[in-house]
Fold this protein.
Amino acid sequence: MDAPTYLAHASTRHTRVSAQKCRLVADLVRERFVGEALTILHFNAKKKASQIVEKTLRSAIANAQQKQPEVDVDTLVVAKIHVDEGPSWKRIRPAPMGRAFRILKRTSHVHIYLDEKKGR
């Protein structure tokens, strides 16, 4: 079986936002044109996750323009986007009576794949 080929892709790794929060933002822009996706990300309430996904999307657009200079940005669509968990930073929080509670500072990896779609 042939693997699908995409026009361009970009990934951001080890970002300091949990994968669960970032997936909520990624679901908003999946299978949308990039102009529409950038507008959604710019005005989204989840600021940190939106900024990370927006930066990755802009990188994917730049990669598409670099790979094929004749490509029209208005025809690019977010073909595939997925967010994976990255490694968690382990931290210790002091607790009463000499105990310690563990804090997990979660990270995530964002992958965006673009493809070209003719017409609206």
Q: What stands out?
A: The first helix runs from residue 19 to 29. The CA atoms of residues 30 and 78 lie 6 Å apart. The first strand starts at residue 8 and ends at 15. The chain has three helices and five strands.
